[in-house]
Amino acid sequence: MILIALNSVKLALDSYLPNDSPDSNIIYASKLIDIFFNTMFAIECLIKCLALGFVMDYGSYLRNGWNQLDFFIVVTSMIDMILGSIVDIAALRILRMLRMLRPLRVISHNVAMKLIVSALFESVGSIFNVIIVVVVVWLMFAILAINLLAGKSFYCSIGIYTYHTQYECNNAGGSWERFDSNYDNIMQAMMTLFVVSTLEGWPDVML
């Protein structure tokens, strides 16, 4: 758990490393730290394989879904470490991106987190049913909004609160433009309702 926490901190600090000097001492030290963490995680994986068996027997290492996640992260990290020092190809960037999965190894080492994540996966079906109900409700109100407010979400480019009609706006030399949040079609209406329901950006829609 300590190694996973330290590795997560190191991954966060990597975003502050300079990109224009790959031969700098900081980049070199970062690579050495990556090698250390990869080696330690690989040793942990090897010890578990020796203690539990690899995959053939019931209860062996790869018979557990969480261990499969651990094994995938370790293998991709080792491939990235080995090939990264030999060749520089674009495909390796995908492997480097997979390093972001390392903090997920905390779940496999914590029983309470395993229980929570398992419960979330078990409830996906029920959550999907709730999403369908919410979308249907949004659809109903989106249809109502289209009937009441279609074609009314426009503004003048030179005076949003000054010119209220397209004729006035054009005479003043402005252009009559549509707000990003509008009720002119079903998709835009549902998206506007989503913005309002999340309370993020709703004052702009209100005004």
Task: Provide the descriptors you would attach to this structure in a database record.
207 residues, 3% strand, two-stranded antiparallel ribbon, 2 strands, 10 helices, elongated, Four Helix Bundle (Hemerythrin (Met), subunit A), 2 domains, mainly alpha
Describe the structure.
The protein is mainly α and 207 residues long. The chain folds into 2 domains: 2-122, Four Helix Bundle (Hemerythrin (Met), subunit A), CATH 1.20.120; 125-206, no CATH class. Helix content is 64%, strand content 3%. It is built from 10 helices and 2 strands. It has helices at 2-14, 25-52, 65-84, 92-97, 105-108, 111-122, 124-149, 166-171, 186-197, 202-206, and strands spanning 154-156, 176-178. Strands 1-2 form a two-stranded antiparallel ribbon. Helix 1 packs antiparallel against helix 2 (25-52) and helix 2 runs antiparallel to helix 3. It is elongated, with a radius of gyration of 27 Å.
Query: What's the pLDDT, averaged over the residues?
Result: 81
Q: Shape from CA axes?
A: elongated
Number of H- or I-type helical stretches: 10
Tally of strands = 2
Largest sheet: 2 strands, antiparallel
Order of helices and strands: HHHHHHHEHEHH
CATH class of the largest domain: Mainly Alpha
- Please state how the strands of the largest beta sheet are arranged side by side: 1-2
How far is the first residue's CA from the last residue's CA?
50 Å
What fraction of the residues are assigned to beta strands by DSSP? under 5%
Cα radius of gyration in angstroms? 27 Å
Low-confidence sequence ranges: none
What percent of the residues sit in helical stretches (DSSP H or I)?
Answer: 55-70%
Query: CATH homologous superfamily of the largest domain, by name?
Result: Voltage-gated potassium channels. Chain C
Oligomer: single chain
How many domains, in number, for the residues? 2
SS content category = mainly alpha
CATH architecture of the largest domain: Up-down Bundle
